[in-house]
Amino acid sequence: MIPLIALLLGAVLGLVLQPEVPAFLAPYLPVAVVAALDAVFGGVRARLDGTFSDRVFLVSFLSNVVLAVFLVFLGDQLGVGSELSTAVVVVLGVRMFQNLAAVRRHLFQA
Amino acid sequence: MVESLEQAPETTREGVPSPARRSVPWLRLGMALASAALGFLLVAQVRATETFDDRLAAEREEDLAVILADLTAQSDALQSEISDLRLLLFEYESSAEAEDLARRSLEQRLEDLRVLSGEAPVEGEGLVLDIADPLGQVSHERLVDVVHELRDSGAEAIDVGGVRLVASSAFTEANERLVVDGEPLEEPYRVAAVGPADAMASALALPGGALDALSSLPEVEPRVEELAQLSVPAREGSGSFIYAEPVPDEGESG
Predict the structure, then answer these.
(1) Does the CB of A13 have a partner CB in chain B at under 8 Å?
(2) Mind listing the domains of chain B with CATH numbers?
(3) ipTM rounded to 2 decimals
């Protein structure tokens, strides 16, 4: 409940402040958001599995974001930034799909 | 601390319900902060991609280069298509113009040939020469001279006694009468010519010319009348050629 409220609070904050994304962050922000979303869906699944732990969630959240951003940054340095960011998004997307499928099985028993 | 962090994934991966953990306050706080950060970033990112301009601003440099190259290639292709089509249009227009020109020139030529062959009745400026010859003194040579003089001075269509003269016309005499293309002429002979009236009249009136030659004959009275409008009928019947066959038009004579 608290995370949900915090999420909405952050969204409202973003709407109110209307932050300008700095140019040097522009390539990394979408990947970071996708990684964070993956962590959140994983957390929802874990909660439904009854294995949720704030510690694991927090660690996976942070490590996901940092790892994804680092990979894209590395890719940028190597000249394959856009390809690597695509790869990261695809992998995270697949994982999100799996997590959401598990959530669906829990919620609808199907 | 490190140990428990290492352990946590193990327990979740095996799907073993973890024992009710003591909720550590700072972890809860961290989770809330993470969620808030996610919401914040999500909104920021969505807003950043809202408009195309923002999206372009968010693209990295090589992506921008690719987009620019794509758009440039597209624009180039469309430009070259435009010039191709313009060229095609120009070609069609000029060929249509050329065809029109050729058609008009052919029509003009057909018109000329129809006049020349006597196929077409003509009208225009010209003169009429009446030759009174009660005694039948005029020979066909005299008439040939008259026609020759008229043609030399620019006559374009000539009619003698109702017979249109063409390339194959001939004057003869039969039973003391003048005959043109098989048609006997009635006296007085009437020659009508469409052409430059003044020039034809003065050509006929040259000293020692056709008129003088006619006037010198007994009782022969030539009378010239210039007309601003004169009509000459078409030739009756069309001559068919039996011996003459047109040579096929070949590019070069061989």
Answers:
(1) yes
(2) 122-232 (3.30.70.1880)
(3) 0.76
